[in-house]
Amino acid sequence: MFWRKPKTFQDPDLGLLTHHHKPRDYWLSQSIATSAGDVLIDLPGDSHTPSAAALAIAKQALLQPNPLVVSAISYVHASASAREFIEGHGELALDGFSFTDTPGSFSVELALSNWPDAVINVIFNGGVPCDVLLAD
Length: 136
Fold this sequence. Notes:
Blueprint: E1 8-11, E2 15-20, E3 26-29, E4 32-34, E5 37-44, H1 52-63, H2 66-78, H3 80-86, E6 92-99, E7 106-112, E8 115-125, E9 128-135
Parallel strand pairs: 5-6
Antiparallel strand pairs: 1-2, 2-3, 3-5, 4-5, 6-7, 7-8, 8-9
């Protein structure tokens, strides 16, 4: 058996993106330095290129990510179930962003310093947090 080399896309602002197709087509970045720290991002697209709309949304959001991160962390702390989930597991840290084709709809992905498998995704709709997904 032989392996196909994954498709890549070089963006001048976001760097090298690699295509993945399970469970859906998406493009994943390498680590990107931002004012909020190093992050990974994923974007929708097809098997040839990332979505142009999602690329534009990601570039805009990454210009000033700090307010989005602060808003996501505040949303987590305002949720009783999220507070219970994170309690005793260290500090919240920015892990990345997952973008869509729709302006204002994306998620801020957070991690916990003392729980490497924890995943906290704060869903934004219309540019404001509206839900938090918790997993380990």
